Amino acid sequence: MQDGSEFPVWINLVGDSLVITPMIADIGCVTLIAKATDVLGETATSTFNICVEGYPTAAIDVKASIFDVQMYPNPAKGEVNLNLIASKTMDSEVIVRSITGSEVLKKEFKATEQIKIDLSDQVTGIYLVTLKTAEKSVVKKLILDRK
Prior knowledge:
mainly beta, 3% helix
């Protein structure tokens, strides 16, 4: 550590890796100095801080960041399903744009609805499908192959 003291009990050196396992009582920052010496005796040092700002206290905190979209089939001939994977159900909006940026479809869905879009009136090509909620959005590439 910078002041020459030992690591706190929640920081351990395992091989050449620091393993850090703080508890909520360990909130705060510590300053560490890493020093490396090569075979010729030359040294390099780097000073950095490790700050503990808290940790999740329940599983819901960990799940809060889950947000993804599955889109199938892809490539598609017309109809496409979107499956929103999120920690909670929510209303969403789907916007489909051609590769040139032209909006070809925009539709809102309630949280309880299955998200299905029909692009059978569009030409073969690459499309960008954006699924938006009040909190986040995801853009997926869709290949429409009408052959």
